[in-house]
Amino acid sequence: MAPALAVNRGARAAAPALLLVAALLVAARGASAALSCSTVYSRLTPCAGYAQNGGAVPQACCSGIRTLKSEARTKADIRAACACLKTLAAAAAGGPALGRAAGLPGRCGVSLPFRIDPNVNCNAI
């Protein structure tokens, strides 16, 4: 009988650890990660040619902006997208590409909750 008792004690000792692991997994699943910059950049890749050279705004660019807006559902998603675009805007160093990129949402008929600007405060969103 002693071996069975030892197994039961071991199972009871492991139960709190298993509950902790399960709780952590549920919490991690519930707290979904904000949009990644790679997702933001991939949605806006069709906009690069217009931002660099001007001309007509490609329909795929506007579709990407609309998709990005629909994917940014939470405050964390919106702030993450803002931070990614802020980084891109800073890399443009105020040149004509920045002006064209900043105007893209309006040209596509999409209203974003932030400006594409290297000085935007994404935490204020």
TrEMBL record:
InterPro entries to which the protein is assigned, alphabetical: Bifun_inhib/LTP/seed_sf (IPR036312), Bifunc_inhib/LTP/seed_store (IPR016140), Plant_nsLTP (IPR000528)
GO biological process assignments: lipid transport
Record domain Bifunctional inhibitor/plant lipid transfer protein/seed storage helical: where: 37-122
Gene3D superfamilies cross-referenced by the UniProt entry: Plant lipid-transfer and hydrophobic proteins
Keywords on record: Lipid-binding, Signal, Transport
Molecular function terms from GO: lipid binding
Signal peptide from the UniProt entry: 1-33
SMART domains noted in UniProt: AAI
Top-level division of the source organism's lineage: Eukaryota
Similarity comment: Belongs to the plant LTP family.
Function: Plant non-specific lipid-transfer proteins transfer phospholipids as well as galactolipids across membranes. May play a role in wax or cutin deposition in the cell walls of expanding epidermal cells and certain secretory tissues.
Protein name, entry field: Non-specific lipid-transfer protein
The organism of origin for this protein: Hordeum vulgare subsp. vulgare
Gene, per the UniProt record: LOC123414009
